[in-house]
Amino acid sequence: MTRQEKIDEAAKEFLNTYIPIRYKKLCLKYNSEKVQIINDLGCTVSQLVGLARWQQDNLQKKAIKYFATSYLLSSVITGSYDFRLALFDDRYYLDPTETSVYWSPRWMFSYIDEDRAALEKAVRQKCVRLQEYELDEAWRAYVHTFYYGLAGFFFAENIKAAAMNSEISELHIEDQIIFLFDGIMDHPVQIDMWKRDN
């Protein structure tokens, strides 16, 4: 077994027991702050809808078909943990008029520094002279799998309601809006849809 394989194995072993504990703590935090979290998301979506309205009035933006919520791979490196909320016409990422805002669910990432420290401490006990960069791959895998997976469920539960409350249906839209979740320029997953009543 190579050194990197040993590090990855130690990280995996630790995270298998750590993730359920972290998940329970995040659920408690979410439930206690839910109203504020949903209001914050709603304000951000309202800004997005307002921008799209202005663009349709002034820049001839075409009818909206997709509402995409995308995690930014670079945010693991920058530590911003931002998500891009964007409205696209039927060309999706080829829409020439960019309509997007950025939002970070701070509540979800409030323990992230604690997570990194706990992972590093656990792996150091099994791998001597551990260098910080040696954990990068395991760390990114943890954030992508656990946090971005959790974010997908959060947006699937809340993004459509936030969009409807922000009167997205008052924009020039296609017969339906498809809500997507993905990494930017990645393979999207449909998390919801809204169809205009005839």
Count of alpha and pi helical runs: 4
Number of strands: 5
Which shape, going by the Cα principal axes?
elongated
* Termini separation: 63 Å
The helix/strand series, from N terminus to C terminus, equals HEHEEHHEE
Low-confidence stretches: none
Outline the secondary-structure elements:
Blueprint: H1 3-58, E1 64-71, H2 75-78, E2 83-88, E3 100-103, H3 112-124, H4 136-165, E4 173-183, E5 189-195
Parallel strand pairs: 1-4
Antiparallel strand pairs: 1-2, 2-3, 4-5
Short description, anyone?
Helices cover 52% and strands 18% of the residues. It is an alpha+beta fold and 198 residues long.
What structural keywords apply?
4 helices, single chain, alpha+beta, 198 residues, 18% strand
Walk me through the structure.
The chain contains four helices and five strands. It has 198 residues and is α+β, with helices and mostly antiparallel strands. Helix 1 packs antiparallel against helix 3 (112-124) and helix 1 (3-58) packs parallel to helix 4.
